[in-house]
């Protein structure tokens, strides 16, 4: 009965076991996963746009081929995640409708413009770097389908980050103008990348967030600030190798903590972007709606084919 089913859920979570689609789960657990997985999937497909804008303008065939592969990967990540969400009883068409109508979010980071080619380097290095930091722990998420989707995503994500690092590496060993372009991109993407980890865990900038409950349920393995701190510590070393400057005058090594202190994040910018006032919010959703409408014939054809195939099976 219900009490027993709830007990088994608690036992599985307490034993750090996986919850599978057919297992009993509290409605709030299911709703939290639908919210997070849907927003994650939306982030992947909206995230195709910033770099997608540079495919026709990549500086070489090699760079174009790499960028096409990366943008295609992001579409695939979206597909794995919409599929994982569907194991919770929602339909991807509904989720996309909610995205189009602003009822579900995508990551704030994708509302920033890609002004130069160097932005493709900064996105790969910083945005995919932050995504990896956040997604590796999700491979151990308590919900089976989400954790398994993350394993493949993380493998592809590390290629994304490495190609971004290599773009900046090349630019930083180029002309002064190329070095300036790389530094300008890092200046514009550094702080928005820190915001990807979500609001602070405590203090005035904390939101009445989901972290405590998500950690109790084994969805989140680390807090937002923990992952952000690891990201900063890792990126400072890589920035030194690249020769780019991190745009934070308060950044300094704390010998005792063995971590970096860093400056205050502008949460008013974060809130403005989430409220729809980012540089590209309207453009991203308009592009998404257009792509959805332009792709309707593909969905209709696939459904017609599936129906014909099913009918043949029944003969
Ligand atoms: N952008 C938009 N919304 C954000 C956000 C961001 N950067 N950070 C937090 N939020 C929202 C949360 O969704 C929540 O709002 P909601 O209740 O309306 O959903 C609110 O701010 C409070 O934040 P919490 O930290 O309490 O919320 P979560 O527990 O959901 O944690 C998260 C936020 C860490 C982003 C978590 O949802 C998560 O780990 N999501 C999965 C990873 C993900 O979505 N990454 C986004 C980028 S994907 C990507 O970069 C693809 C790569 O290939 C480029």
Automatic annotation (TrEMBL):
<dbReference type="InterPro" id="IPR011881">
    <property type="entry name" value="PaaA"/>
</dbReference>
<dbReference type="Pfam" id="PF05138">
    <property type="entry name" value="PaaA_PaaC"/>
</dbReference>
<dbReference type="GO" id="GO:0010124">
    <property type="term" value="P:phenylacetate catabolic process"/>
</dbReference>
<dbReference type="InterPro" id="IPR052703">
    <property type="entry name" value="Aromatic_CoA_ox/epox"/>
</dbReference>
<dbReference type="InterPro" id="IPR012347">
    <property type="entry name" value="Ferritin-like"/>
</dbReference>
<protein>
    <submittedName>
        <fullName>Ring-1,2-phenylacetyl-CoA epoxidase subunit PaaA</fullName>
    </submittedName>
</protein>
<dbReference type="GO" id="GO:0005829">
    <property type="term" value="C:cytosol"/>
</dbReference>
<dbReference type="InterPro" id="IPR009078">
    <property type="entry name" value="Ferritin-like_SF"/>
</dbReference>
<dbReference type="GO" id="GO:0097266">
    <property type="term" value="F:phenylacetyl-CoA 1,2-epoxidase activity"/>
</dbReference>
<dbReference type="InterPro" id="IPR007814">
    <property type="entry name" value="PaaA_PaaC"/>
</dbReference>
